Known about the structure:
Methylamine Dehydrogenase, Chain H; five-stranded antiparallel β-sheet; 30 strands
Amino acid sequence: MMKARRGSALSAPxxxxxASLLSGGLLTGCFLDTSGVEPKSGEFNxxxxxxxxxxxAPGEAPAFLxxxxxxxxxxxxxxxxxxxxxxxxxxxIAGCGGGPCQLHTPSRFLAAGHEVxxxxxxxxMAVSTDGTRLYAPFRSDGTLTFIDVDPVTGELSCQAGGxxxxxxxxxxxxxxxTVASQRGESMPGDPSRVLLRPLPAPWDGDFLVxxxxxxxxxxxxxxxxxxxxxxxxxxxxxxxLPANAVGLAYDxxxxxxxxxxxxxxxxxxxARLGVAxxxxxxxxxxxxxxxxxxxxxxxxxxxDVRDLAFSGNSLYVLSRRPQAVVTIDLARAGLSSGDLPIxxxxxxxxxxxxxxxxxxxxxxxxxVTCYDxxxxxxxxxxxxxxxxxxxxxSGPFEVAVDEVRERAFVTxxxxxxxxxVDLAPLSNGTSDPLSIIATIGIPRAPSELN
Length: 450
């Protein structure tokens, strides 16, 4: 059976940057796309989400880097999604010679049809397992936008008839099923993350969970790759999750999705979400359900968790209270008592924002962006030791890792660029420090973004 073709948000940036934009009146009507100025092709504008295309064959280097530009300052009538050619990017870095590489024009890594115009304020991004579709929810219109991808050429399409590039049409923006669905659901309008979950056999297709800051979550079903003109369908919305929900991760061992919140409260808890799969012939009848809120014991100053990641029975929790990566052994902890006792705490910088897990040189590492600390922490996932700290960022937010080429790509939100970190020292046995080897785009200070 052909497996489904389908199968990581913007927490608020620093108060200083947001206040400067608000004082300039740039967020007036901030949830409405306008008919104004078109986004400049091949230019970063407050990039938030980033992802690596899955390799087309085992061991093969991925071909594309996907970047979502949020249009946070509302300079344009929408944001954009780009597919950068990683091979061309590597050639550009190699041609720089010594010293950090300044690649001022991202357009040189964009072929025709490799960029589309979307809504503004993206709430994360998910990529299908075979690289044929991208998903990103947008706060500007409260919908989930899906973009079809040619995994060979990297061309993007979100228009009727398969036209490449251009503006995404209404068909590719999903979320209001009040008429088409018997449940009459509508996706909440403040999405923070999106998570793709491939369905087990005998189901053919994928589920997508879109988390909303209001404490709700939406469940979409996307059909099999063999179906023509298929689009994700909103089938359920659940509420009762913690407010200001920002973190979303799937525990493949138990089959449960974990949700974290940026709220502080007297008791630190994580929410759990399950999906009830009723009928393999009618996946649209499935629904979300809350599966408890276990406590994080050992944290005595409330919950402010920004991200989550799983590796086997290990749960990694990125916290701002304290500023740390907290490790929990779920096999040891169990859930009968409702507690998640902490096994290890690894301190990081201020403004911890995103957490990614990747394997370099046969070892698993955690990559942590610290927005206010302007740093990237690299932590040995097995031991909890800090392998290195990379500095030189302005406002690092999201990170994606090319495990084959041993590169980390970091969206530097405050400067509207993407930074490239060389990870080779993690695997080649040297003591060389990790460093930023390239900057894609022209760095711009916040004062220049008016």
